[in-house]
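Structure in, sequence out. Go:
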């Protein structure tokens, strides 16, 4: 805990010097900054010494809890050797060991690992690889992409170009390359007006139309498998993923999976694509890759993609991409420790009862007057608030009902962050049954209070 006068000093400096991501700073200036000082397990502690459950895994990346001894130790041990060394030319030990390990745990066929620093760059790399692959193969016209409405792949220009969230992405439209958007399989608000029980995945037909008409010009489809995160925790019906994969194969279009959020156990399996036995051509990983400790990302590719970049030096088939901190040894050492924990602590096996417990606890929400939908995939869940349950009329986003729920939850010791009127629940995988119950009970009460029931 920090001395009171220094607390105030920090709060002043925060407002004075910092520009926060995805934050309207005019509103921020009116609030008292909430400053985190420490963490342990699933708990965070602010500069006042007050404790909160980390209900969003520190922006969807924490896996084993905070200050996990094995990861702390791995970083300290690596720090005694070297903090950073470049991969542009030389190699480094943790980067080599991690690449081998990632290929071992990845879906079969993904055999090459290209590092970067964050989810956006992992996807940016994937898009560039897919594009350049076709250039090398002689299909020069394949310059466009397919993506899903409500998709989110990052905040760089390229990844925004394949992003389908209007409030974030629309303003930059003039800067993007051509992308075709297929309807998202968002069953609660089916874009085709179908009922899930007899829809026969009509949304796949829409995707097929796009592919059929434009396949000569399309390099790749990119999508988040099973769960579209930032677009509102949209959970796909069974069969969509494998259907999309099959269509891409049929129409000669590369299939990129953005597993930045879903990777490393969130959905109950190591990667979401394993639920439907799908292997993409390219897969982007980041958030949970080292337990949520430091910036690291990887883009995995098949041998087929990789081989298309081989050639004489003078042919200029090289993949001209790389970042200063590519393959950072500290980040890779942390990732190796995290993957070891998956084995040693049987993380995936131990998730099964937690996932069931979460499912049981979510049931209660469906009875609330302003809860339109409570959905779940693995240890990811969302509560969609609606003004009118019978018509599914949403709360206007300006009303900030989600923020009200989260502020209420914070008063009771739970840190969460909404996506508009959708409340996201994404605890570290290490959360235990009691903590999970407490988290959901706080949330239940907060929803009741904020929606005035
Ligand atoms: C968070 C996220 C990204 C972007 O990752 P950053 O590390 O924030 O750049 C990309 N795709 C998905 C699915 C994500 O959830």
């Amino acid at each position: 805990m920090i001395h009171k006068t220094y607390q105030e000093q920090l709060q002043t400096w925060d407002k004075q010097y910092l520009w926060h991501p995805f934050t309207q700073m005019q509103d921020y200036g009116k609030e008292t900054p909430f400053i985190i000082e420490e963490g342990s397990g699933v708990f965070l502690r602010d500069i006042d010494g007050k404790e909160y459950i980390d209900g969003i895994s520190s922006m969807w990346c924490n896996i084993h809890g905070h200050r996990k001894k094995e990861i702390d130790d791995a970083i300290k041990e690596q720090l005694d050797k070297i903090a950073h060394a470049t991969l542009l030319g030389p190699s480094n030990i943790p980067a080599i060991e991690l690449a081998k390990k990632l290929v071992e745990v990845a879906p079969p066929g993904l055999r090459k690992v290209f590092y970067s620093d964050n989810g956006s760059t992992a996807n940016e790399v994937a898009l560039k690889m897919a594009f350049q692959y076709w250039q090398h193969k002689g299909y020069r016209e394949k310059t466009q992409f397919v993506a899903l409405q409500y998709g989110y792949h990052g905040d760089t220009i390229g990844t925004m170009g394949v992003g389908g969230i209007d409030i974030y992405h629309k303003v930059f439209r003039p800067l993007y390359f051509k992308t075709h958007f297929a309807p998202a399989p968002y069953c609660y608000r089916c874009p085709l007006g179908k009922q899930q029980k007899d829809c026969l995945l009509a949304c796949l037909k829409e995707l097929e139309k796009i592919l059929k008409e434009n396949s000569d010009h399309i390099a790749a489809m990119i999508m988040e498998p099973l769960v579209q995160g930032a677009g509102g925790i949209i959970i796909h019906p069974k069969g969509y993923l494998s259907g999309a994969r099959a269509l891409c194969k049929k129409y000669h279009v590369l299939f990129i999976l953005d597993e930045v959020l879903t990777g490393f156990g969130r959905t109950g399996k190591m990667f979401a694509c394993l639920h439907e036995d799908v292997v993409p051509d390219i897969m982007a990983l980041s958030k949970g890759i080292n337990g949520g400790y430091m910036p690291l990302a990887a883009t995995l590719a098949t041998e087929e993609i990789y081989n298309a970049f081989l050639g004489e030096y003078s042919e200029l088939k090289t993949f001209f991409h790389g970042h200063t901190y590519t393959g950072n040894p500290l980040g890779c050492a942390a990732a190796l420790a995290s993957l070891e924990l998956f084995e040693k602590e049987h993380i995936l096996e131990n998730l099964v009862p937690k996932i069931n417990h979460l499912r049981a606890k979510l049931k209660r929400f469906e009875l609330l007057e302003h809860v339109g939908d409570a959905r779940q995939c693995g240890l990811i869940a969302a509560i969609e608030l609606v003004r009118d349950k019978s018509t599914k009329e949403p709360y206007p986003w300006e009303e900030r009902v989600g923020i009200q729920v989260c502020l209420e939850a914070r008063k009771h010791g739970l840190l969460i962050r909404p996506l508009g009127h959708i409340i996201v629940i994404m605890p570290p995988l290490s959360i235990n049954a009691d903590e999970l119950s407490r988290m959901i009970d706080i949330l239940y009460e907060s929803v009741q209070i904020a929606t005035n029931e």
